[in-house]
């Protein structure tokens, strides 16, 4: 539930009675999209109900809190649910619909069972298109009773989502008991995620658990592109928030503008460091419609001896389940099995909430999702989609083979010590940064006095210093930056344009010193240097190894013909600088003057 509008400023004493609002059904419904950035489309809409405008009930949380205190929660939610479903049907939207349900309502004696199902049947809407989103608002609910009520809804074909994941203990316990189809990450963990390492660790853990249980994760309250970038890199499945659209009573009329905005957000996402899964891992197999019977599915499995599972899709080709050969045989393989179950639809025998991955997802994210499943499901095929629609099935063995081949290819191009990308990947990364036609910073980093240090203290200590540089740079770089190791003490760091570049480079040098100096003998640190032979065999004093940086600021649409030629001139100036840093701006027309650079 992501509606964060402030409560109306009207005097509460003049507000209409909530009982009158419920009886007269004075409820408005707004819809907010839930989007899939990988496919660049709208995945679902969440219905957000509001009471009369210019009253305290115009704010959703205020209205529901009052209903809870006045024992009107069940009738209020019934009205909201009816208005949401009928308005959604009137909009003729093809996506899923999320509706909020308070957990205690499912156990409230005033709650009338079957009303939602009857309404959907009258409107011709299948149950799997509706997602019941449970929001933890009241403590003291028996989790076991709650889980039993949820399983009842799941048995009727409804999809379940848990809201505000991580906000309270009860939601986590309920999550472990009911295995919901979707879990919503609380906005606390989304806000400023890109600037908070601890939050990223929590989100990574949530994702691993969710994907291991077959749940898909929706990040709520996304308001900044930097938050989206970070969530996208971590592997969140879907997103919701003001960055995409605010709640609207007429979402279809605003769809064209939303699609254009999503196209912009998708275009700015940089390609992940690992390649996408690719169609060669996806085995194209026919799917099963929701009207196919168990007997018909049995015949299809009989005609395809090497197929162990098939996807069940709705009329929009969106996967809603997976039917395995074992599940079919368990029904029809028994005596009188065909007579008893042959006419049943496959939806009664399928595994709901299948693991779905997009063809563009990075291999490492797909691997975490597949291998994170339970042991009994780990070897089962997974569903492959494109723009959320079914294209085929994926096999674990094919995925692992592809991952192995990619790792071998990367290892061939990596520096053997630091395992960072080597010369060829660095050249490719430079081409990618230039091709994006955005300003960026190309940094050449050199470890000063490394050779005499290596000769004086040995290769073991020298290798450790190089690893310290690699770890420092990798820790300090941003999520879309690139780090490579040319060899020896030479590194390349490509940065997105930064406002305080000088401050960042200074912090980077300081971080290396903080990591490196504790390894040195006390007297070397005290003297801030050491005695060693120079290139002429003469004993002399050398300062401690220092990371010098030559940073070339490249404007959008411009680039030198050879970064190597520029860097070779720049790094000598950086070494001579007192602070070991040189920041310049590329300017092609002044190539003959001052090496084509302007300070």
UniProtKB/TrEMBL annotation:
Domain CBS per the UniProt entry, residue ranges: 277-340
Protein name, UniProt field: Bifunctional diguanylate cyclase/phosphodiesterase
Residue ranges annotated for the GGDEF domain, each copy included: 438-589
InterPro entries documented for this protein: CBS_dom (IPR000644), CBS_dom_sf (IPR046342), Cyclic-di-GMP_PDE-like (IPR050706), EAL_dom (IPR001633), EAL_sf (IPR035919), GGDEF_dom (IPR000160), Nucleotide_cyclase (IPR029787), Rev_trsase/Diguanyl_cyclase (IPR043128)
Keywords: CBS domain, Hydrolase, Nucleotidyltransferase, Transferase
Molecular function as annotated in GO: cyclic-guanylate-specific phosphodiesterase activity; diguanylate cyclase activity
EC code: 2.7.7.65, 3.1.4.52
Domain EAL: 11-261
PANTHER family xrefs: CYCLIC DI-GMP PHOSPHODIESTERASE PDEF, SIGNALING PROTEIN
A Pfam short name: EAL
């Amino acid at each position: 539930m992501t509606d964060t509008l402030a409560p109306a400023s009207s005097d509460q004493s003049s507000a209409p009675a909530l009982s009158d609002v419920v009886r007269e059904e004075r409820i408005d419904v707004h819809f907010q999209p839930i989007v899939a950035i990988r496919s660049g489309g709208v995945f679902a809409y969440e219905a957000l109900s509001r009471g009369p405008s210019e009253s305290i009930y115009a704010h959703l949380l205020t209205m529901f809190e009052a209903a809870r205190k006045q024992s009107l929660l069940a009738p209020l939610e019934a009205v909201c649910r009816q208005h949401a479903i009928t308005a959604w049907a009137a909009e003729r939207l093809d996506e899923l619909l999320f509706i909020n349900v308070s957990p205690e309502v499912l156990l409230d004696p005033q709650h009338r069972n079957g009303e939602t199902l009857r309404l959907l049947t009258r409107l011709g809407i299948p149950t799997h298109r509706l997602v019941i989103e449970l929001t933890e608002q009241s403590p003291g609910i028996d989790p076991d009773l709650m889980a039993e009520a949820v399983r009842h809804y799941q048995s009727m074909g409804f999809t379940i989502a848990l809201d505000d994941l991580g906000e309270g203990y009860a939601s986590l316990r309920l999550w472990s008991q009911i295995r919901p189809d979707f879990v919503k990450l609380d906005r606390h963990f989304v806000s400023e995620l890109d600037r908070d390492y601890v939050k990223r660790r929590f989100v990574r853990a949530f994702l691993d658990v969710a994907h291991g249980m077959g749940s898909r994760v929706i990040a709520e309250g996304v308001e900044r592109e930097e938050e989206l970038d970070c969530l996208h890199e971590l592997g969140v499945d879907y997103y919701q928030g003001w960055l995409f659209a605010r709640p609207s009573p007429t979402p279809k009329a605003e769809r064209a503008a939303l699609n254009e905005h999503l196209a912009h957000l998708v275009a700015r996402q940089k390609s992940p460091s690992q390649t996408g899964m690719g169609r060669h891992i996806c085995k194209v197999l026919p799917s099963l419609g929701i009207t196919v019977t168990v007997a018909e599915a049995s015949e299809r499995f009989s005609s395809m001896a090497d197929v162990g599972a098939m996807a069940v899709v709705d009329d929009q080709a969106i996967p809603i389940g997976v039917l395995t050969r074992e599940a079919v045989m368990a029904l029809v393989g028994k005596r009188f099995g065909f007579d008893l179950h042959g006419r049943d639809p496959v939806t009664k025998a399928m595994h709901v909430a299948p693991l779905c991955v997009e063809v563009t997802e990075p291999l490492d994210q797909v691997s975490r999702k597949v291998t994170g499943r339970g042991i009994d499901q780990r070897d089962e095929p997974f569903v492959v989609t494109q723009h959320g629609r079914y294209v085929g099935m994926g096999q674990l063995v094919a995925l692992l083979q592809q991952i192995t081949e990619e790792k071998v290819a990367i290892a061939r191009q990596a520096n053997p010590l630091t395992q960072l990308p080597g010369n060829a990947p660095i050249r490719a990364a430079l081409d990618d940064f230039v091709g994006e036609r955005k300003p960026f910073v190309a940094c050449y980093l050199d470890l000063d006095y490394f050779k005499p240090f290596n000769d004086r203290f040995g290769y073991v200590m020298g290798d450790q210093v190089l690893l310290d540089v690699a770890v420092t740079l990798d820790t300090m770089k941003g999520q879309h930056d690139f780090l490579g190791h040319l060899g020896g003490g030479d590194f390349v760091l490509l940065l997105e344009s930064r406002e305080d570049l000088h401050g960042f480079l200074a912090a980077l040098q300081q971080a290396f010193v903080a990591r490196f100096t504790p390894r040195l003998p006390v007297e070397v640190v005290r003297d801030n240097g050491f005695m060693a032979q120079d290139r002429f065999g003469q004993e002399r004093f050398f300062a401690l190894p220092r990371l010098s940086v030559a940073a070339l600021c490249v404007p959008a649409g411009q680039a030198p013909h050879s970064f190597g030629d520029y860097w070779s001139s720049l790094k000598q100036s950086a070494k001579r600088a007192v602070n070991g840093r040189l920041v310049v701006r590329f300017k092609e027309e002044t190539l003959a003057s001052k090496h084509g650079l302007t300070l």
